[in-house]
């Protein structure tokens, strides 16, 4: 853990002189929720010492705001996205936080369950390492719906990095890394509320509050609470299936902070309960007479706990030692038509880190880690309930997957006045399933002039697949699902980026150009193409790679108005059944234009985003009895527009917006919707939005909390 990341925790914060009744409620709730845990220090975002500073004179508040998006300061290529940027859209959860991000896409995995996946460098979310405050999270069974487990109002910032990351966080990041920083218990005291409602029948309520106990800035606790309910059975395309599942979620997190001398700790618990239902709308004309409606029901209970401890041994040389870890239990009980799937996943992670600066130029970090995954899962298909035309599409499956991986790493960083930063790291890990493997990574940052920054990276990544748990949405398909014995995935990633600062008309144009290449040595492949009656999850037999090129530019056209334009091209190919083919359901390019304007007094803010998503390949179709193809071989480009207006008041703000205002909807996202009990039923071929235009309104209330 870098000393620079720990130091901001010593910063003094204002405390209220009077402890309110709300403070007592938060304190008592925190004591009830918190178990006996060793706890830990919090890693904060890079450059986190640059904070918003408010000075209040009577009724006049003068505010100096920091940039809402900024580059990470080290050798790794990435962006630090702050709350101001997140609030430019509804940002109901993590999955909706990338509307203005040209590098990250979030797409539906299927048209029935509401599962979503993030895509980075043209690769699916399984190759993007998800972290919550620098601890690995949302693995395995949590992956399909994990983007909805982090409410937007809980997030303090996001760090998105591309390519391989530091070896400190493990061996998994192949395409990139997304780290979520939550609101901190040691932040200034107060309570904030957020209420949201949409025309699609979705309602959300969020609250966060924290207190400094007995006025002691070194001991504090916080509560994060979330409730959402989507009660609508909306069917805008008339296929008889809900466009979006009905979701009811309760989410609660309690966090603690304590500092004593050179020791700091953070700890917390979180509880989540979610029920989602989807499927056919009752008594719809497309339902076959005498057939039972096709239903999907997914119930999830998730429990998490984390701890972080940090000891500052020598502040002058940044010498510190940190012990951090988290545990989770994820229980999911689901039914997809007549398929019943149950999974109970337990994960544990621990990391011991030592770091020191020999001089201002030389830094050494070394550590040990332990990762454990345990999955108990079963899938049943009662033969007595199988319709005659359904066949024996899915066998009875039960199993336990267990993997324990201890590891060690060392990383050296050379920093010459922030003009030249070279970081080289090596991990050695041993899996009881896959054996011993090495993970080398290298990053270089060079600033030859004030207007140019060059970054280069190269490294290797690994991941252990859990095919059924990570892709459980595939069970909504009527095809036969075949899963082979899978190998550990491995890939090399190489990247280069150039960042330019160009003065134009007394303003600064920010221009970035980057290229990344990912070459898979071993990969889990989901094959839709070889057999139209099957979905085959198998090992790569041939080549698989991704080339991604992106260029983006930002410019303040005039005071208060910032424009960003971006273009990204993806060339992603994989071998399916002996043929090297474009990856299906992956847009080959994306164009993005965002505009953000804030009035001089900061009372009104207007944000708009125009996205053009390029066309791509559909999985290989099959020939119907009529001689026609079951679907088109390719899909065309489509555009989307999102917009939001925010009105700021002294202690609250109102926002009104719309998403997908072009009203583009994928035509027939569910193949074979007329008979979901047939093996031609296929809801997983989704490349674009399922819902049409949607409007929303919300309010954010600030009850005594100082802005940050």
Automatic annotation (TrEMBL):
SUPFAM superfamilies: Porins
Residue span(s) of domain TonB-dependent receptor-like beta-barrel: 233-661
Biological-process GO terms, alphabetical: siderophore transmembrane transport
Entry membrane topology: Multi-pass membrane protein
Compartment annotation: Cell outer membrane
Molecular-function GO terms, alphabetical: siderophore uptake transmembrane transporter activity
Transmembrane segments: none
GO cellular component term of the entry, any: cell outer membrane
Keywords from the UniProt entry: Cell outer membrane, Membrane, Receptor, Signal, TonB box, Transmembrane, Transmembrane beta strand, Transport
Presence of the UniProt keyword Transport in the record: yes
Keyword Kinase (UniProt): no
Protein family according to the UniProt entry: Belongs to the TonB-dependent receptor family.
Name this protein carries in UniProt: Outer membrane receptor proteins, mostly Fe transport
